[in-house]
Amino acid sequence: MLDDKQCPDCKRINEVLSRVGDRWSVLVVISLAQYGTLRFNELKRNLSISQRMLSLTLKELERDGLVNRTYHPTIPPKVEYNLTKMGESFREPVNVLGNWALDNLAKIDVSREAYDERASN
Amino acid sequence: MLDDKQCPDCKRINEVLSRVGDRWSVLVVISLAQYGTLRFNELKRNLSISQRMLSLTLKELERDGLVNRTYHPTIPPKVEYNLTKMGESFREPVNVLGNWALDNLAKIDVSREAYDERASN
DNA sequence: CATGGCGGTTCCCTTTGTGTAACCGAGGTT
DNA sequence: AACCTCGGTTACACAAAGGGAACCGCCATG
């Protein structure tokens, strides 16, 4: 499997989705876009994400070049995160998706109810 | 957990991502957008997706009202899938995301390489 | 007679995702 | 002295995602 002989675009889309397509990554980017700069525990409280997942997510986002990590060796330590230029540019696709969500979530719910009712007969 | 007291938008984004945010759903929508109407095995070959995942994905997309399923009781059976109006409207967010991917995948790769090299020292 | 295509469904198994809890070191607070 | 904060890391456990193979009925083809 995994030929990818067909649908060449799919390979690319698949790649990007497997990088930034998980929930936490998107939510972290949204938070940083909204607040500019946030510390580790601020993000944690804001998203009610577990410490472990936040750590993993931020590491990946930094590795991918979407998020900037600044370590202040004070006591207690202070670590700030903000979006890179590429991270900022990711806001547009996220916003478009968010708006679509806003417009269509209700319709999806209706469709689901209708489908489930049909299926129960 | 899962308070969602903070970041009210996150709840909505999270909802839509958990519906149509998985890889296969996106790829199926892209394929249908590109070719108009496809049969089950055409999609399967096109995406090199397993039969099981394609079946599950299509069922969910139909339930959500993004995809239309037309069953022709011929022999052999013929089942055609195409996008609904809502499915069509989903192309825009997907395209924006796809374009972002196209523009930034290379940069992400570069960033990853640099990060990994730094980390190995 | 055996095989293959169509459109699935079902079972099993492995991989991945995600949460919980404990721990870290240095210093501040009670 | 005991505990809390910050920013993590690590070990463990469980749930969900997803692939592979077998099976289904029905008919056409070899």
Structure characterization notes:
- 2 copies of one chain form a homodimer.
- Chain A is of the alpha+beta class and 121 residues long.
- Chain A has a domain of 82 residues: Winged helix-like DNA-binding domain superfamily/Winged helix DNA-binding domain (Arc Repressor Mutant, subunit A, Orthogonal Bundle).
- Chain A contains 6 helices and 3 strands; from the N terminus they run ααβααββαα.
- A 3-stranded antiparallel beta sheet of chain A has the order 1-3-2.
- In chain A, strand 2 and strand 3 form a beta hairpin.
- The longest helix of chain A has 29 residues.
- Chain A starts with 7 loop residues before the first helix and ends with a helix.
- The mean pLDDT of chain A is 89.
- Chain A binds a DNA duplex (30 and 30 nucleotides) through helix 3 and helix 4.
Summarize the structure.
By secondary structure, chain A is α+β, with helices and mostly antiparallel strands. In chain A, 67% of the residues lie in helices and 12% in strands.
